[in-house]
Every structure is written in C-alpha cells, then in structure tokens.
Amino acid sequence: MPGFEVFGEEEKREILEVLETGVLFRYEFADKRKGVYKVAEFEKRFAEQCGAKYAQAVSSGTAALRVALAAMGISPGDEVITQGFTFVATWEAILESGAVPVFTEVDETLCMDVEDLEKKITPRTRAIIPVHMLGAPAHIDKIVAIGEKHGIPIIEDTAQACGGTFNDRGLGTFGTIGIFSFDPVKTITTGEGGMIVTDDETIYQNCSEYHDHGHDHNPKLERGLEGRRFIGFNYRMGELQGAIGLAQLARLKGMIAAQKKHKKAIRQALEELNNVTFRKLPDPAGDTATFLAFFLPDGDAARRFNEVLRKENAGAIYFKENTWHFYPKWEHLLGGLTLSRTGWPFKEREQGQDLRYMPDDLPRSKAIFERLLVYPIPVKMSKDRLETIISAIRKAGSRDGVAS
Ligand SMILES: *Cc1c(COP(=O)(O)O)cnc(C)c1O
C-alpha cells in the first residue's frame, strides 16, 4: 500500500512546471498557463491506463462517489446497495446524496457476496456499489450480470484497487461508472484526489458539470459566460494534484510488480503452515497485491497467532476490530448519529418509520472476520524486514501447533 512510500524527483519536476506558470486552477487563464493543463492530461492518461473512454478528476475518492451518484440522478429515498466491509466513505456518499445505504455480506473474497446481493434488491434499489477491497477484484462479472438482469447500474468503488484487472480488463470499467481515490494510503496518491471513469458520454457530461458548479464547459465561450443545465457543487481537482498524479501514474505498474514480489515471499512462509488458508481471489492475476489476507481455523487461533506476530514486531491487521472498515464497528451509523436537526434519514424517514442498522445484521461477514488476518504489503521492503516477518510467521505457526 504505497502512496506515501514513493515520492521523488518526477513529482517535484511536475509540480515545478505548474509553479512556473503560476496557474493552480484547472480551467481558464489560457494566456498565462503556457499550454500546461495537468489535470486534463492526468484524466486523459488515466482513462487510457484503465481502458475507459472518459475520466473526470475530482477532489477526493469520496467526492468521486458523491459526483457519480449525482450523475446517475440518485434521489432522497432511493436505496443504494453496498457491502458491510468497506471504508466509511462509500456509505457516507450514499447518505450525502439523500439515499439510504443497504449493506450486503462479504464472502471469502472479502468483497460483495453475490447471493446476498440478489436478496437485498428491492423495487427502490437504484444503484449497486461493489467495492474491490484490499487491492483485489470482486466477482465483478457476476455483479454486473445481476445489475443488468434487474436494470440497476453499477458504480465500482475501485479506491483500493487502482491498476487491478479482472480477466485482463481494468477494474473500474465493468460498471456504468468506476471511482478511484488518491489519498495518502492508496496505491497512487496526490495528497487528496479522486477520479471517475465511464464509457457513457451523458454520465461523463453530468460529472463534468456537476463537479464544477454546473459550468457546461462550452469550449467556444469564456468561463464566465458559460451556460448551466442544472445546479452543481464544487469537487474540483487543482493543477498541483494533477501534476503529482501524472508522476505517480507513471510509477503504477512498477509499484504493483514490487508488491507482487513481496506478497509472494510472505505468502510462501504462510503456505508452509497446515491450518492457514487464503482469501479467495476471483482472478489472482488481477490482484494489485497491496494486501495479503489469510484465515486461521477460528477466532481464538487467529488472535493467538497475531499475538505472536505482534511480539515479533510483525503484527497483522485484525479487521474485526477496525472501526473504519467493518459494519459492526460503525457505532455512529448504528446509533443514527447525524448533525441533521430532524435526524433524517434515521428518524422521520416516512410515516414516522425509523431506519435502524443493527450490529448483528451481517452474521456471515462477522464469522469470516473472526478468523481473518491481513498484512499490508509495502512497495519498499528491506531483506531484514522480510526476514523478520517470515520468522515471526514460523514462530506463530509452531507455537500454535499449526505448523506442518
Ligand atoms: C479511501 C476510500 C474511499 C475514499 O477516498 P478518499 O480519497 O479518502 O476520499 C472510498 N472508498 C474506499 C473503499 C476507500 O478505501
């Protein structure tokens, strides 16, 4: 999970090109900018990289979700289905658009449980947001097929899987819209930033105008004279972010290759243990290898195993206790805690009916997370660090009696 790990001369050179023009804004100032349009160039290269027709840069991954939902016309009272294992941003954006998040279980892919998705569809469902969690693809072919069967569009949350593929096709290009994040812990980073990709020209136009106060971006008119088709908001990306994005994008393939190498080395040590199994990957070749997820037989074994890893300075993430990514730990959602004066949408939703999210709503996910441990995989890893991790794994395996 690089982002912050890799930052160098190329990023500095790109930033300097912007500073030499003094134009930090992505639009207008044609006479001052010496032909430098970093955000526009970043969009073009990003679309090429993932194989999409259009790309729209925005101020964050969360903004990308919000703009995507707006571009699809999502409205108050609509239901949008996502999964109970994701970053809070996914359902925050649904709530921000006035819609109601509905959560599915995840299966051992750690992504959307396809069977549960079918069960959660209602006449009110207006979009489905599967999340390619921890760097690897979901069963996106099956999810898209279910969406098509019911006439419901898919927004792929690809914030954590930039550069990933499924059957050699770029993640983010299967749904009607794909969104990406460039925050400091994502695979490529611009400090803050996000991207929306789509092949649908109308959706792209909606994104382009909505994210910029409704400006219709008529190329024949000066900015102040442009028309408006609808009310928008401001989710723009600035030129400095665009410049950094260009330098980071050029590193993407190399970073994924390095992660794959490190992941393989750690995985080999785990494969020596009898009772360790691995996260199911619908297409292992399309994994960006930002994380290595593995299972112990039960919760006790997982916690004991991790205790040894921690003592050996090589602790893994126990997502069951993570408050930002896993449904039962979202106390503010479960409590309906909102600044909204009326308590909407939790209270006063309609005819006095409250919306309640219950902690035990996703029992199958909970059972999976009991047993799950996850290593973040760095781009840069010294031989010493790798040896520390491997010897910690061997120790944990033998102490637990699970080694072969
Ligand atoms: C990081 C992330 C986001 C939000 O991106 P930001 O750029 O931090 O706003 C959305 N969804 C998922 C799954 C993420 O991990």
Explain this structure.
The protein has helices spanning 9-21, 38-50, 61-71, 89-96, 114-120, 140-150, 201-210, 239-271, 299-311, 331-334, 363-370, 383-399, and strands spanning 54-58, 79-83, 100-104, 125-128, 155-157, 165-166, 169-170, 177-181, 194-198, 277-278, 291-295, 372-376. It has 12 helices and 12 strands. It is globular and about 70 Å long. Helix 3 (61-71) packs parallel to helix 4 (89-96). Helix 4 links the parallel strand 2 (79-83) and strand 3. The model has no long low-confidence stretch (mean pLDDT 95). It folds into 2 domains: 3-251, Aspartate Aminotransferase, domain 2, CATH 3.40.640.10; 253-325 and 363-399, Aspartate Aminotransferase, domain 1 (Alpha-Beta Complex), CATH 3.90.1150.10. The chain is α/β, with parallel strands linked by helices and 404 residues long. The chain has a 4-stranded mixed sheet with strand order 1-9-8-5, sandwiched between helices.
Describe the secondary-structure layout:
Elements: H1 9-21, H2 38-50, E1 54-58, H3 61-71, E2 79-83, H4 89-96, E3 100-104, H5 114-120, E4 125-128, H6 140-150, E5 155-157, E6 165-166, E7 169-170, E8 177-181, E9 194-198, H7 201-210, H8 239-271, E10 277-278, E11 291-295, H9 299-311, H10 331-334, H11 363-370, E12 372-376, H12 383-399
Parallel strand pairs: 2-3, 2-4, 5-8
Antiparallel strand pairs: 1-9, 6-7, 8-9, 10-11, 11-12
The protein binds pyridoxal-5'-phosphate.
